[in-house]
Write a structure and sequence with these properties.
The complex is a heterotrimer of chains A (434), B (458) and C (266). Helix content of chain A is 63%, strand content 4%. Chain C is an alpha/beta fold. Chain C has a single domain, classed as P-loop containing nucleotide triphosphate hydrolases (Rossmann fold, 3-Layer(aba) Sandwich). Chain C is 35% helix and 25% strand. In chain C, the strands form 2 sheets. Chain C has a 6-stranded mixed sheet with strand order 6-7-8-3-9-10, with helices on both faces. The longest helix of chain C is centred in the middle third of the chain and has 14 residues. Classes of the chains: A mainly alpha (434), B mainly alpha (458), C alpha/beta (266). At the A-B interface, α1, α8, α9, α10 and α11 of A face α2, α5, α7, α8 and α9 of B.
C-alpha cells in the first residue's frame, strides 16, 4: 500500500491488493464455472427425465390410439341362428364359418381350427352381430358386412409388436395363424382406423375392447362432487379466516390445521374415507360420490390457501372506499372484494381439481379400482376413475394393456395440461396488478 | 328421493324469498321507512329456511341407511342369523340389498326375498316421511319469517349473522377433518391392538400379515412387527433424497443466480410440469422404464438386482421430489434480502461466492424446511411404491433388494377386503396411524421452521 | 497511502483525477435513467451527489463499480476510467473492480455471520491474508478505521445483525475498507440512521478522506455541505452542475440547482 511514487506518478497503482485479487481470480472463476456446470447438469437431468417420461409414454402409447379391425362378409345362417331362439344363437359359429370360407387352408370340419379361427376376432364381435340381428331380425338368412376389432395378439402382430423371427414355440401366434392373417391382409380385409373405442368403450377383460368410458364418467362424477363440496366450503372458510376471524387461538388453530392437512399423505385420507364414510356412515364402496367427498377434503386446503392469497391481493383502498359509503363489512366482502378476487380463486380451484384428478391412493382404498364393465349412471354407482383405471391396466399381464396404459396416461395428462392451461389463461387474462 | 326433497325445499324457500320481498316492498311503497331493503328481507327468509332444513335432510339421510339396515336384520325370522359372524351377517345384508335392487342370483330363500321387499318398503316410507317433514318444516319457517317482516326488523343483520355462521362452520371443516382422521385411525388401531400386542407391533422384526382361514388355524397367525416395513420406507426415502436434494439444490441455485431470464421463463414451467405429473404416472414410469434399466445395468456389471429393487422406486420418487425441493430452495434464496447479495458483490465476491457463502447460509432454514417436507412426502408417497416396490418385508438396507413400505402395506392389506374385524385389515390402520404421526411431526416441525424463516426476513 | 501528498490541500484542483466518466448513459429496459453524464472525481476527497429522488444519482454511483451489471435489464453506455483504466474493458473482471471500489449501502446490510466473519469475508475471498494472525490484524485495523473497534472488540464472535443501526452501518463501512479499496462509494449511508449515528458516520467519512476517494450520494444538502469538497447536482438523469461544495451552495450557476437548494424542487 505504501507506494512511494504515489505523489509523482500521475496514476498511482497500488500493489498488493490488486495483485492478490488478480492472482486469486483464476481459481475463483474456476470454482464459479464448476458450480455453473453442476447447475446446468442438474437441470438437464431434470429435463432429460421429463423427456424420457413423455417419450416412453408416447412411444408405447401411440399404438393404442389405433386398433386393427377386420371387415367380414357374414352369412347369417338361419340354421345356426333361428329366429325363435333370439337373442340366443350360434353367432360365433356363423362368424367362424364366414372366416373359414375366405381362408384357403381352414377346414370347417376341424374343431381345433375353428376355435383358432374364432380367436382371431375379438370376443366382442359375436355380441356386436347379435345386437344387430336382434334389432333387425330380417337380417337372418342374409349376408351382412361387419367391421370388428381383431383380438389382441393379431393387433400386436399388425402393429409390428410381435417379432416374426421369434421361434414359433415362444410366440403367441403360430405360423398358420400368421399365414391366415397375411391372407386377410392381402385381401385388404384388415384396416387400422382410429381407436374410438378407447374413449367410448367401458373397461373389458380383453385389451382390444377395453376403453376409458367408465373411468372418464367416474372421474367426472368424482370431480363434480369434489368441486360442489370443496369450492363453497373452501371459499367460505377462506373468507372467514381472511376477512372476519378475530386473531385468536381458534383462528390460529384452524390455520395450523389447514396447513397440516395440506401435507397429510393422501393414503391417510383414504383410510379416513374407508373408516368414516364407508365403515361408519354406510355409504357404498367404489362410488364416485365417496371418492369425490374424499378428494374434496384433500382439495379444500389448496382452495383455502389460494382464496386467502387472492383476497389478500385486493388492496385495502377498495375496502375503505366501500366502507366509506356506508356498506357493511359483509357488503364490502361479497359485493367488492370477492368479485375482484374471483380470478385468483378460480385459478387456485382449477389447480386443486387438477391435483384431485390425478390422485390415486385414496380412491384405491375406497374400492374405486373394481373391475366394472359399464359406465356408472350416477355418483352412487360403482365406478373406476382415470388414475385407478391406469393402475388396473398397469397391473394387467396382457401385452395389449401396456400400450393402453400409456394411452390412458396420455389422456390423463391431456386433461391435466388443459386444466392448467385454462388456469394460466385465467390468471393472465383477468389478473390485475394493483 | 333425495333429489325430489331438495327440489321441494328449493321451491318452498324461493316462495319464502318472494313473499318476504314483496311484503317489504309493499311496505316501502306505502311510505314506511324500512331498516333493511326488501332484498334482505327475502334473503333472510331464504337462508333461514334452507340452512336448518338442509342440515335436517343430511342428518336424516345419514341415519336412514343404518337404521333401515338394522330394522331389516332384526326383522329376519328367528334362527336365520344364528352362528354367524359379522362378516356373514354383512354378506346376508348385501344379498338382501342386491335382491331389492332387482339383481337376483340363483334362487334365494323366501325369507331373503321377504326381507328385500320389506327393505324396499321401508325405504319408500322413509322417503315419503322425509318429504313430509321437509315440507312442513320449511313451510313453517317461511311463515315465521314472513311474520317478522316489519319496518324496524333488521333483516340485513339477520342475513349477515347466518352467513357468518356458515363461514365459521366452513372453517371448522379443517378441524373436523383432522379430528376425523385421528378418530378413525385411533379407533381402528385400538381394535388392532386388542388382537395384536402393542409390543409386537413396535418391536417385532417380522411382518407377515396373514390371517387364519379357520378359527383353529394357529400356525397361520401372522406376524405384525412394523420395523422391517418402516425400514423399507426409510431405505426408499433415503434413495429418493440422494437423488432429489443435490439435483434440486443445484438447479435452484443455477436458476436463481446464473440463468438468463429467458431460460428461467422456460425452466420454471418445465419443473412445474414435472411437479404436476400424477404419482400413478411416475409409478408406471418406474415399472416401464427405470426398473428394467437398472436391472439391465446391474446385469452388465454382474450385480444381481431384484426386480422390485428399492433403487428403482426410490430414484423415481427422487425425480418426483426434484421440483419440490428446487422450488422451495428457489423461494428461500429469493427471500434473502437483495441488500445482502449487493453487499457481497460490492466486496468483490464472485457470484458463486455470493451464493455459497452468503445467500445459501442465509437461506438454510427455508431450505431445510423444504427438505423436511420432501421427506414427509416421500414417506407418505403411495402409488410409486405400490407399483414399483415389493410386497415382502425384509430387514435390509441394500437398495438393490426388494423392500416394502408402510404405504404399500396399507394399500395391499385393504384393497379388495371389506370386513373390518380381522387383524389383517386393522393392521393397515395401525400402520396408517404411525404414518400419520411420523409425517405430522415432520410437517409441524418443517412448517414452523419455514414460517420462522419467513418472519425473519419480512 | 501513507504519504501526505494526496491530501495536501482541500484545494481539490491540486488533487489528481481518480475517476473519469465520459458520456455515461444508463437504460432500464426502454427507459433512460442517466443521460450523458461526464464527471471527474478527485482522489482523496469527498464528492457528494445530490438531487431529488429518482434523479439518477444512485444509478450513476452504481455504474462506478459496475453494480448495475447485476440488474438484468440495466444497460450502461459510455466510458468510465479509474486510474486511467477503462472499467468496461474486456479484460476487467467486475470482481477485480469491486475489490478496488468498495461500496456502502443505504440500509446497513451485515451478513448473518459474526462481526469478525463480516469483516474477514472480503480479505478471505480475495486471499489478502496469509494466515490467521494477518487476518486478525486486518480485522482489527478495519474495525478501528470504521470507528467501531472499541464498541465491538469484546464481542467479535457475536452476530453482526445484533448491533444497533448506526453500529451496523459502521461495521459495513469497516467491511468495505477491509479489502483495501481505493475508492469508497456510499449510497445514502445515513438515511436509515438517527442523528447521533449520522454524526458518527459523518466524522468517519471525514477520516476516510485521508486515504480514499469517497463518493457519497445523499439527499440531505446539509450533509453534502458538511462532508464533501465537491458536489454534483443531478436532475432528471442529467448532471446539472458540478463544482466545489462551497460554491455550489452559496453561488449556484444553474437556476435548477438554485431551485433545489432553496427547496423549490425536490
Amino acid at each position: 500500500m505504501a507506494d512511494a511514487t504515489a505523489g509523482t506518478d500521475p496514476k498511482p497503482k497500488t500493489g498488493s491488493t490488486a495483485d492478490l485479487v488478480r492472482a486469486s481470480l483464476a481459481r475463483r472463476n474456476r470454482k464459479q464455472s464448476t458450480l455453473q456446470v453442476l447447475g446446468i447438469g442438474a437441470m438437464s437431468f431434470a429435463f432429460l427425465m421429463l423427456f424420457i417420461l413423455v417419450a416412453s409414454l408416447v412411444s408405447s402409447g401411440y399404438q393404442a390410439f389405433t386398433q386393427t379391425h377386420i371387415t367380414l362378409e357374414v352369412f347369417i345362417d338361419p340354421e345356426e341362428v333361428p329366429l325363435e331362439r333370439l337373442p340366443r344363437g350360434g353367432f360365433d359359429d356363423v362368424i367362424e364359418a364366414s372366416l373359414s370360407s375366405v381362408l384357403e387352408d381352414a377346414d370347417p370340419n376341424d374343431r381345433a381350427t375353428m376355435r383358432a379361427l374364432g380367436s382371431l376376432l375379438s370376443n366382442g364381435a359375436q355380441f356386436k352381430l347379435r345386437d344387430r340381428v336382434v334389432e333387425d331380425p330380417d337380417l337372418i338368412g342374409q349376408t351382412v358386412t361387419m367391421t370388428v376389432p381383431v383380438s389382441d395378439p393379431y393387433d400386436q402382430l399388425h402393429k409390428g409388436l410381435i417379432d416374426r423371427e421369434t421361434p414359433e414355440q415362444f410366440r403367441r401366434l403360430k405360423n398358420f395363424e400368421i399365414a391366415w392373417f397375411d391372407q386377410l391382409v392381402a385381401m385388404e380385409a384388415i384396416s387400422k382406423p382410429l381407436n374410438t373405442g378407447l374413449i367410448s368403450n367401458p373397461d373389458s377383460r380383453f385389451p382390444e375392447l377395453a376403453g376409458l368410458k367408465g373411468a372418464l364418467v367416474g372421474s367426472f362424477w368424482a370431480l363434480s362432487v369434489c368441486f360442489a363440496i370443496s369450492f363453497p366450503l373452501g371459499i367460505g372458510a377462506a373468507i372467514y379466516l381472511e376477512e372476519f376471524a378475530p386473531k385468536n387461538k381458534f383462528s390460529d388453530f384452524v390455520e395450523v390445521n389447514i396447513n397440516n392437512l395440506a401435507a397429510v399423505p393422501s393414503v391417510v385420507f383414504g383410510l379416513l374415507a374407508l373408516a368414516v364414510f364407508i365403515g361408519w356412515f354406510g355409504l357404498p364402496r367404489s362410488a364416485p360420490f365417496v371418492g369425490g367427498m374424499t378428494l374434496a377434503l384433500m382439495t379444500m386446503p389448496t382452495i383455502i390457501i389460494a382464496t386467502r392469497a387472492a383476497l389478500k391481493a385486493v388492496p385495502p383502498s377498495i375496502r375503505e372506499a366501500a366502507l366509506g359509503v356506508g356498506a357493511s363489512r359483509h357488503q364490502v366482502v361479497f359485493g367488492h372484494v370477492l368479485p375482484l378476487a374471483m380470478p385468483g380463486i378460480l385459478t387456485g380451484t382449477i389447480i386443486g381439481l387438477a391435483q384431485a384428478l390425478g390422485e390415486t391412493a385414496p380412491l384405491l382404498l375406497i374400492g374405486m379400482n373394481a373391475f366394472i364393465t359399464s359406465a356408472p349412471s350416477g355418483p352412487l354407482e360403482s365406478a373406476t376413475a382415470l388414475p385407478t383405471q391406469i393402475f388396473i391396466w398397469a397391473d394387467s399381464p396382457e401385452r395389449g394393456f401396456a400400450s393402453r396404459t400409456s394411452a390412458a396416461i396420455l389422456v390423463l395428462l391431456g386433461f391435466l395440461i388443459t386444466m392448467n392451461a385454462v388456469s394460466i389463461y385465467l390468471r393472465n387474462r383477468f389478473e390485475r396488478s394493483w | 328421493m333425495a333429489t325430489t326433497v331438495f327440489l321441494a325445499l328449493l321451491c318452498v324457500s324461493i316462495l319464502g324469498y318472494s313473499l318476504n320481498r314483496q311484503a317489504a316492498a309493499r311496505m316501502r311503497a306505502n311510505g314506511t321507512k324500512l331498516h333493511s331493503v326488501p332484498g334482505y328481507h327475502g334473503l333472510y327468509s331464504l337462508l333461514s329456511t334452507i340452512v336448518p332444513v338442509v342440515v335436517l335432510i343430511v342428518l336424516w339421510l345419514a341415519l336412514q341407511g343404518p337404521t333401515i339396515d338394522r330394522f331389516t336384520m332384526s326383522g329376519l325370522p328367528a334362527g336365520s342369523l344364528d352362528e354367524l359372524e359379522t362378516g356373514g351377517r354383512q354378506l346376508i345384508l348385501a344379498e338382501i340389498k342386491s335382491i331389492s335392487r332387482g339383481r337376483v342370483f340363483g334362487n334365494p330363500e323366501a325369507w331373503k326375498v321377504d326381507a328385500a321387499d320389506r327393505y324396499v318398503w321401508m325405504h319408500a316410507v322413509a322417503g315419503w316421511m322425509l318429504f313430509g317433514v321437509v315440507i312442513v318444516a320449511s313451510l313453517g319457517i317461511v311463515g315465521f319469517a314472513r311474520s317478522r317482516v316489519a319496518a324496524d326488523f333488521r333483516a340485513r343483520h339477520g342475513v349477515e349473522r347466518i352467513t357468518s355462521g356458515l363461514m365459521l362452520f366452513c372453517s371448522t371443516i379443517a378441524i373436523f377433518t383432522t379430528l376425523g382422521i385421528i378418530a378413525a385411525l385411533l379407533f381402528e388401531s385400538i381394535r388392532f391392538f386388542e388382537r395384536v400386542p402393542i409390543t409386537e407391533f413396535f418391536l417385532g422384526l417380522n411382518w407377515e400379515p396373514q390371517i387364519p382361514l379357520r378359527e383353529d388355524q394357529v400356525a397361520a397367525e401372522g406376524a405384525f412387527g412394523w420395523i422391517p416395513v418402516f425400514l423399507g420406507t426409510l431405505v426408499i426415502t433415503v434413495v429418493a433424497l440422494f437423488l432429489a436434494v443435490p439435483v434440486g439444490l443445484l438447479s435452484a441455485i443455477y436458476l436463481n443466480e446464473f440463468a438468463t431470464p429467458r431460460l428461467r421463463a422456460v425452466a420454471k414451467p418445465v419443473l412445474e410440469i414435472l411437479a404436476g405429473v400424477p404419482t400413478v404416472v411416475y409409478g408406471f414410469f418406474a415399472i416401464l422404464v427405470v426398473a428394467p434399466a437398472i436391472r439391465s445395468f446391474g446385469a452388465t456389471l454382474g450385480i444381481p438386482v431384484s426386480p422390485n429393487a428399492a433403487l428403482a422406486a426410490g430414484s423415481v420418487m427422487g425425480i418426483m421430489l426434484i421440483p419440490f425441493i428446487s422450488s422451495f430452495t428457489d423461494d428461500a434464496l429469493s427471500a434473502v434480502p437483495k441488500s445482502l447479495r449487493d453487499g457481497a458483490l460490492a466486496l468483490g465476491a464472485t457470484r458463486a461466492e455470493t451464493v455459497l457463502n452468503v445467500l445459501f447460509p442465509a437461506a438454510i432454514p427455508g431450505i431445510v424446511g423444504g427438505i423436511l417436507l420432501a421427506i414427509s412426502r416421500a414417506i407418505g408417497e403411495t402409488m410409486i411404491v405400490v407399483m414399483a416396490a415389493g410386497l415382502i418385508a425384509s430387514l435390509t438396507i441394500n437398495p438393490l433388494d426388494s423392500v416394502t413400505t408402510v404405504t404399500v402395506q396399507i394399500v395391499t392389506l385393504l384393497v379388495g377386503d371389506t370386513s373390518f374385524d380381522n387383524p389383517k385389515t386393522l393392521a393397515a390402520f395401525a400402520l396408517g396411524m404411525m404414518l400419520f404421526i411420523v409425517t405430522l411431526v415432520i410437517n409441524v416441525f418443517a412448517l414452523r421452521i419455514v414460517r420462522k424463516y419467513r418472519e425473519a426476513y419480512e | 497511502m501513507m504519504n501526505d501528498m494526496g491530501n495536501v490541500g482541500r484545494d481539490s484542483a491540486a488533487s489528481e483525477i481518480k475517476i473519469q466518466a465520459r458520456g455515461v448513459q444508463v437504460f432500464y429496459g426502454e427507459t433512460q435513467a442517466i443521460k450523458d453524464v461526464s464527471v471527474d472525481i478527485l482522489d482523496k476527497s469527498v464528492t457528494a451527489f445530490i438531487g431529488p429522488s429518482g434523479c439518477g444519482k444512485s444509478t450513476f454511483l452504481r455504474c462506478l463499480n459496475r453494480m448495475n451489471d447485476t440488474i438484468d435489464i440495466a444497460r450502461v453506455e459510455g466510458d468510465i476510467h479509474i486510474d486511467g483504466d477503462d472499467i468496461h474493458a474486456p479484460g476487467i473482471d467486475p470482481v477485480q473492480l469491486r475489490a478496488k471500489v468498495g461500496m456502502v449501502f443505504q440500509k446497513p446490510n451485515p451478513f448473518p455471520k459474526s462481526i469478525y466473519d463480516n469483516i474477514a469475508y472480503g480479505p478471505r475471498i480475495h486471499g489478502l491474508a496469509r494466515n490467521k494472525a494477518e487476518l486478525d490484524e486486518i480485522v482489527e485495523r478495519s474495525l478501528r478505521r470504521g470507528a467501531i473497534w472499541d464498541e465491538v472488540k469484546h464481542r467479535l464472535h457475536e452476530p453482526g445483525t445484533g448491533l444497533s443501526g448506526g453500529q451496523q452501518q459502521r461495521l459495513c463501512i469497516a467491511r468495505a475498507v477491509a479489502t483495501e479499496p481505493e475508492v469508497l462509494l456510499m449510497d445514502e449511508p445515513c438515511s436509515a440512521l438517527d442523528p447521533i449515528a449520522t454524526a458518527q458516520v459523518e466524522d468517519l467519512i471525514d477520516e476516510l478522506r485521508q486515504s480514499y476517494s469517497v463518493v457519497i450520494v445523499t439527499h440531505s444538502m446539509q450533509q453534502a455541505a458538511r462532508v464533501s469538497q465537491r458536489t454534483a447536482f443531478f436532475h432528471l438523469g442529467s448532471l446539472v452542475e458540478y463544482r466545489e461544495t462551497g460554491q455550489i451552495f452559496t453561488n449556484p450557476e444553474d437556476p435548477r440547482t438554485e431551485s433545489y437548494i432553496t427547496g423549490r424542487i425536490g
